[in-house]
Design brief:
It is a single chain. By secondary structure, the chain is of the alpha+beta class. Helices cover about 25% and strands about 35% of the residues. A hairpin with a 2-residue loop joins strand 27 and strand 28. The longest helix is centred in the last third of the chain and has 17 residues. The two termini are about 25 Å apart. The structure holds guanosine-5'-diphosphate and adenosine-5'-diphosphate.
C-alpha cells in the first residue's frame, strides 16, 4: 500500500488511461481503479493486478484467484460491467487472448468474505460453444467408472475426464494423473485453502476434490467435461457458477451392488462395509429435490449405456457430427491493436500498416453469449469478423475507445 505514483496523478478519472510500459488502468465504480500489467513478482510471469482505492488514497494488492494469463508485452482492456473487465492480450492467438478479470461477481464476493481480503479472479475466455459438463454420481461399485470409460472410448474427441485429486492410496491399475492425482492430505488441504478446488468432499474417510485446473484442461481442448464425483460434490457444483448436467446412477438392488463391489476386488472387507453404509445415504440423497436431472439404473450394462447416450443426445447421427467436431479457427491478435465497447459488443481492431490488406482486421465479440466465469473458463464466446465502415462498424457509431499498450 502507498501513494499513487506520479504516473497516474491527475489521470485516474480517465476511463481509458494509457500508461508507460505495459500497464493498463480501468476505473470500476467511482472509488476503485484496477491497474494491471508488468509481472506480479520475479518468480511469476503473469499480468499482475493492483487496486487503487481513491477514497482512501491507497494501493491494495488483491488475492488473485484462478489460472492467470501468461505475461504479455502489451494488452488492451475495457470495463464490461460492474462485475468484470475484459483484457485482450496482444501478440497472441485467439485461443489465449481473451481474459476476464472478475472484480465483483458472486464468486469473487463470496471469496472476499471468506478470505477477508480484496479479491479478484481471472477466467480465460473460450471461443465457441462448449456443451455443459456432465456430473455423474452414484454409490461405490454401481458402475460409474465403467460407463464413463465406455463413453470416452466411443467418443474420444468429444469427452474429457476431469481428473480429481484424492488422498486415498492408488489401486493396482490406477495411474497418477490419469485416474486421479494422488496427493498428500496436507498438500490438498493447502490447495483447498488457496481456492484451487471447484469442490471437495470427505468420502469414505478420504479427501476428494475437483481442481479448477482439472476442468479447465478439458475445456481448453474443446471437449465436454465428465466429472465422477460424490453427492456432496454434486451439491457444491450445483451451487457454483459451473452449469452442468447431473446424473445419478442407481444399482438394480443393494445385493447386486454388494456383489459388484466384492467382485471388483479392490477394497478390504472393512472398506467394503464402509462403502456399503455410505451407499445407503447416497441412494437416499439421489432424490433430493433439484439436485439430479436424470436417474439411470445400471442393471444390464449395455442397456444402461444406451440410455446414458440417449439422454446426452448421442445417437448414430450425433456420433458422426461429434467425431468430426473441430476447434474454432484461430486468428492472431497483434501486439498493437485496439478494442472498443459498443453496447453488448466488443470490437477488436487488429489493423496495422502491414495488415491493411487483410480482410480479417476487425472482429466483434458478442458479450451476450458469455457463460460461466471464475473459477474456470468463461465459455461460449461468439467472435466473428466484421467489415469496418466510415462511421464505425456496419453503421453502428463507436462509443468508447480503448487503449493499446506496447
Ligand atoms: N466430491 C468428490 N467426489 C469424488 C471426486 N472424485 C471421486 N469422487 C467420489 O469419491 C467416491 C469414491 O471414489 P473411489 O475411491 O474412486 O471409489 P469407487 O467409487 O468405488 O470407484 C466416488 O463416489 C466418487 O464419485 C471428487 O473430485 N470430488
Ligand atoms: N451393469 C453391470 N453389470 C455387472 N457388473 C457391472 C456392471 N457395471 C459395472 N460392473 C462391474 O462392477 C464393478 C464396479 O464398477 P465400477 O465402474 O468400478 O463402479 P464405480 O466406478 O461406480 O465404483 C466393476 O467390476 C465393473 O466391471
Amino acid at each position: 500500500m502507498g501513494e499513487a505514483p506520479g504516473l497516474f496523478e491527475g489521470h485516474l478519472q480517465d476511463f481509458h488511461l494509457k500508461s508507460e510500459g505495459p500497464e493498463t488502468a480501468i476505473d470500476v465504480g467511482s472509488n476503485k481503479t484496477y491497474v494491471f500489467g508488468g509481472m506480479e513478482n520475479e518468480s511469476t510471469s503473469t499480468i499482475g493486478v493492483r487496486i487503487f482505492d481513491k477514497s482512501m488514497g491507497e494501493w491494495m494488492i488483491p488475492t488473485v484467484l484462478g489460472t492467470r494469463p501468461g505475461s504479455s508485452k502489451g494488452h488492451s482492456a475495457v470495463l464490461i460491467d460492474d462485475e468484470r473487465i475484459l483484457v485482450v492480450k496482444g501478440d497472441s492467438t485467439s485461443d489465449d487472448c481473451f481474459w476476464f478479470l472478475e472484480v465483483n461477481t458472486a464468486f469473487v464476493r463470496e471469496q472476499k468474505m471468506r478470505l477477508g481480503t480484496e479479491t479478484v479472479a481471472w477466467s480465460k475466455g473460450l471461443i465457441g460453444e462448449v456443451e455443459k459438463p456432465i456430473v455423474i454420481s452414484g454409490p461405490s461399485g454401481v458402475g460409474k467408472g465403467t460407463l464413463i470409460s465406455k463413453l470416452m472410448e466411443e467418443f474420444p474427441s468429444m469427452f474429457g475426464f476431469s481428473v480429481s485429486h484424492t488422498t486415498r492410496a492408488p489401486r493396482n491399475k490406477e495411474q497418477n494423473g490419469v485416474h486421479y492425482h494422488f496427493t498428500e492430505r496436507s498438500v490438498m488441504e493447502k490447495d483447498i485453502e488457496d481456492v484451487k478446488f471447484l469442490e471437495f468432499a470427505s468420502v469414505h474417510g478420504n479427501l476428494y476434490g475437483t481442481s479448477v485446473e482439472a476442468v479447465e484442461v478439458v475445456a481448453d481442448k474443446g471437449k465436454r467435461c465428465i466429472l465422477d464425483i460424490d453427492v456432496q460434490g454434486a451439491r457444491s457444483i450445483r451451487a457454483s457458477s459451473l452449469e452442468a448436467i447431473f446424473i445419478f446412477v442407481h444399482p438394480p438392488s443393494f445385493e447386486e451392488l454388494e456383489k459388484r463391489l466384492r467382485a471388483r476386488g479392490t477394497e478390504t472387507e472393512e472398506q467394503i462395509q464402509k462403502r456399503l453404509r455410505n451407499a445407503r445415504t447416497e441412494l437416499d440423497q439421489a432424490n433430493s429435490p433439484g439436485l439430479f436431472d436424470h436417474n439411470l439404473v445400471n442393471d444390464d450394462l449395455e442397456t444402461c449405456y444406451e440410455n446414458l447416450k440417449k439422454l446426452l443426445g448421442l445417437n448414430e447421427a450425433g456420433k458422426t457430427t461429434t467425431t468430426d467436431k473441430s476447434l474454432p479457427e484461430l486468428f492472431d491478435v497483434p501486439l498493437k491493436h485496439s478494442i472498443s465497447k459498443i453496447d453488448q459488443k466488443i470490437l477488436i481492431n487488429c489493423g496495422t500498416a502491414e495488415r491493411q490488406n487483410s480482410s480479417r482486421n476487425m472482429f466483434a465479440l458478442d458479450l451476450s453469449s458469455i457463460k460461466g466465469g471464475a473459477p474456470g473458463r468463461t465459455r461460449g464466446l461468439n467472435v466473428y469478423s466484421v467489415e469496418p465502415s466510415m462511421n464505425g462498424v456496419n453503421g453502428t457509431k463507436m462509443s468508447s475507445c480503448c487503449l493499446l499498450t506496447s
